[in-house]
Every structure is written in structure tokens, then in C-alpha cells.
Amino acid sequence: MAVLDSRLTGEERPVVDRPPPAPRKKYAKWSTRAPLLPALIFLIIVTQLPFVATLVISFMKWNSLDPTNRGFAGFDNYVNVFTDPDLRSSVVNTIVLTASVVLISLVLGLGLALLLDKKFRGRGFVRTMLIAPFLVVPVAAALIWKHVLYNPEYGLFNGILNWLGFSAQPDWISSMPMSAVVLSLVWQWTPFMMLILLAGLQSKPIEPVEAATIDGASPFQIFRYLTFPHLRQYLELGGLLGSIYIVQNFDAVFTITSGGLGTANLPYMIYQTFYQAHEYGEASAAGVIVVAGSIIIATFALRTVSSLFKEEKR
Amino acid sequence: MKQTAGGRIWGVLAWFAGIVFFAPVAWMFLTSLHSETDAATNPPSLAAPLTLDGYTEFFDGGAWPPLLNSFSASIGSTIIVLLLAIPAAYALSIKPVEKWTDVLFFFLSTKMMPVVAALLPIYLIAQFAGMLDNISFLTLLYCSMNLPIAVWLMRSFLSEVPREILEAASIDGAGLITILRRVVAPIAMPGIAATALICFIFSWNELLFARVLTGVVAGTAPVYLTGFVTSQGLFLAKVCAAAVVVSLPVLIAGFAAQDKLVQGLSLGAVK
């Protein structure tokens, strides 16, 4: 622009008068970037650097109760993680817990979302009742399930059995510990799935459904060929976000079974390895493995979010 | 005729499901108002006399410090998060930097990393800096936990501000501050409020960091609740009262943000 101007006026200005173009462009660029920087720098320092440290510690022999015996361990910690039966079973538990909670709450959430998508009296009130479990603090919810519902002597479940005339009074947590944890988490996460799927249902265009109804399609056909394909990406999103949150679950396992009775998942195991056994190296190796697993889920999750995102921009 | 009968069945089914899901919450509330002996009966005593003993005992048992810790960590981190997230969201929506989608997805990817993997180094840093059992350190961690969510949410709210209005305002000679105050803020305000409520909920609920990094001084409400994990004897009314009190702020914030809750939980991917 400046060059063009000088040509038009035919004026030869000294070079010093003209501001050097490169720095000004740079300045503009940085002034656009500036508002972003505090957040970005803060996040990199607080979330990314610790992972690097975890990676480093995972290759070290380090137990804080034995501080003199610290050094390089190579892949020993990883070998230990994969050969330690407790840690191996915690990997299996994490997968079982996450998969069952996500699948069950997704199916229930879909059912509830389809119900709430219909018109009936008191719909807003029913919706509020259904959201409530998600808004109970997770530790509080786990405590309620453990002591107030599952308790074999005076818990509500056995109370209801008693009311209905059954003599059986099972000890829910000891007889089926994993299902007990899963059930309490399904109760909390079904509303989450329901909300996402309901949002999906309500963003569904109405015209194709009307056209199909006029053409004589059955409700099942409408669900199978119109509603379900539209909902697919919302189901994916709910499943992936649910997986990300539940893989990390600590509260329910810690509260309901304290990691006992074969329910310890990876987060609980890592907590125990580092906080109670002080095995820093092994805990870090297990942490790196969780991260590796999460990256796989996260890749799919990011892809789904990104496809929804592009659709929105269109 | 057949249609309405069918419709009625769906309604009944929905009501039934709603009551089943709500029952544990209702039961928790009812039990919190019973005396300990009435709370521990089998079959359960529905119509037992109501009392506030559970609440009195909970508050007399040292519940105030953890509740105040939770409030200061949650509110403090929410304010810092908003101060960091709003400018960042501005640079990702209204006046976007180059490759802004990449930056946005970087923010999201940090949220997908399990916190448990960063727990040990963070603990060691806190130990080294003498910040164990310190509520400010916990507040800082909650900021990092919520910042990606807040950036995503604020970006999706700010991108709803119409470009034409912004251009018109700047042509009319309004400066940056005026545009932000008079044009952007009024449109973005409900979004900012919803973001704040959602960040508050996540910080308030957090247990793992609080459990590992705090103790007697800076313990938060969820940490205080873990004291009930191995309780024995008559304590059901007290534990229910505790659960009600600790969940109350989340229930209030959650219902206040109800419309934006899905958008927040899906990181702005679902409207």
C-alpha cells in the first residue's frame, strides 16, 4: 500500500519515514493473539508439564519410603504393571465398568429421551425429576447408595423387599460389588445421556417425518430410518464423552467398595499405588498407560465433536 | 382415539421412569428429616415424625470449614477461569487468530487427559512448594480443570454475536471497550452466567485432587463427606443431611443453568 502510494504521487520519501512493514504486521498478529496467550500458557504449564514429569518418573525406580534407592529403571515399572495381577485386573475392571455404565445409561437415556420427546401432562416436571440424579454431588450420591439404599439391614432396597413380602435380604455390595457400583453410576449418568439425546431429537427436522407419515410409514420405520440415523452422532457423542468421564471415575469406587471386592479400577489403583504404597515409579507407569488408553478414546471423541462442529459452521 | 390412548401410555411410562429415578433423591431428603432411630428401621418408616436433628448434628460436627473451603475454591477458580477464558474465546470467535480451530481443539484435548496421570507430579510440586493442604493451590488446579470447558462454551456463545452489529458499531466509531461493553456483553451475558455455573459445579464436585492434596485445614466438602465411608452405627439421618446440604448448591446451580447444561456438558457441541 505504501509503495503504491508513493508511486501514485511520484514522491520519493526517505526510507526512514516509512514504518518497516514486517514489524507492523507482526504487531497486528500478536495483538490478535494476545488475548489468547494467558489461557494457553496457563493451561500448558498446569496440564502438559505434569504429564512430561509423569513420563520421566515412569522410567525411574522411586519409592518415597526408600529415598536412597532412587534411579533409572528402564521399562521395569511397565513390566511390573503388566505382570502385577492386581494392576492387570484393574485394567479389566476399568474396561468392564466404563463399558457397562456407558452402554446401559445410553440405552436407558435413549428410552427416556424418546419418552420426553412426546407431549404429555407434566413433561417439564418429569424432566426435572430425571435430571436431579445428575445434580447430586458424586460422593454424596455414592454414600447414599452405599449406606441408605444397599445396606443389608436397614437399606431401602431390602426394606422394599420386606414390604413386598420377600424374605430374602441380600447383602448387595458383597454379593455383587461390581454391579452395585455400575448401578449407582448408571443412575447418575443416564440423565446426562438423556439430555444429549433429547437435544438431538429436538434438533431433528420435522418435515421428513411428516412426509413419511403421509406415505404410510410405521412408527418403527420412522425410528429406524429417520430418527436413528439422525441420532447416531449424538449417541456417539454421548458414548464418547461418557467414556472419557467414567474411565476417570474415582468417587464411586472409592466410596462404595473402597476398591475392594475386585472393583478397583485404574484411577483407584494409581491413587493407592502412589498415595498408600508410595511406589512413585509404578504409579506413573500406570498413569502413562491410562493416558495411552484415553488418547485412543479421545481421538474418536475429537473426530465426532469436530464433525458436529463443521456441521454447525455450515 | 387410538392415538390419544397410546399417548397416555407414553405419559404414564415417563412419569413412572421419572419417579423411579427421583426416588433415591426423595428418600435421601426424607431420611435427612428423620431421627436416627426412625431412619434405621426395616421395613422403612415413611410417616415417622420430622426433625432437624440430622442437620444440627451435621453442622455442629465441623461441617462449616469444609463448606467454606469448597465455596472459596469453587468461586475463586470460576472467577479466574472466566478472566482467562473470555479474552481467549474472543480471540477464537470475534477476532479469530489464524488456525483458531486447531487452538480450540488443543484446549479440548487437554480435557480428555485423565487427571489421575498428572496427580503424582502435581503432588510432588505442591510438596516441594509447601503448598500441600492449601486451598489456593487447589483453586489453581480447578482453574486448569475448567478452563478448556469455559473456553469452548464462551466461544460458542460469543460466536452467536452477529458480525453485522460489530461491523456497524466499529464503522460508527465505537472503540474496542465500547463495543465490548455495549454490544458483546449484553448478548454474551446469559452465556457467561451459564459457563460460570457449570465451572462452579465441576469444582464443587471434585474429589480426587482434593483428597490427595488437602488435609485438615483445606479439606473441601466432598473430602469431608468421605469421612462417612466407613461409618458404623446410627448415622443415616446425618449422612443424608450432609448429602442434601453438600448437593444443594449444585442442584441450585444446575437447575439455574438447565437450558445451557447440555451445551456445557457436551463442550458446546450440542445446542
From TrEMBL, chain B:
InterPro entries: BP-dep_ABC_trans_perm, MetI-like, MetI-like_sf. The chain crosses the membrane at residues 12-30, 71-92, 104-129, 135-154, 183-203, 209-228, 235-257. Gene3D superfamilies: MetI-like. It is found in: Cell membrane. Keywords: Cell membrane, Membrane, Transmembrane, Transmembrane helix, Transport. This is Mannitol ABC transporter permease. Pfam families: BPD_transp_1. GO terms for cellular component: plasma membrane. It comes from Lentzea aerocolonigenes (Lechevalieria aerocolonigenes). GO terms for biological process: transmembrane transport. It comes from the Bacteria. Residues 67-257 form the ABC transmembrane type-1 domain. PANTHER family: ABC TRANSPORTER PERMEASE PROTEIN, MALTOSE TRANSPORT SYSTEM PERMEASE-RELATED. Belongs to the binding-protein-dependent transport system permease family. CDD domains: TM_PBP2. The keyword Glycoprotein does not apply. The keyword Chaperone does not apply. It is a multi-pass membrane protein.
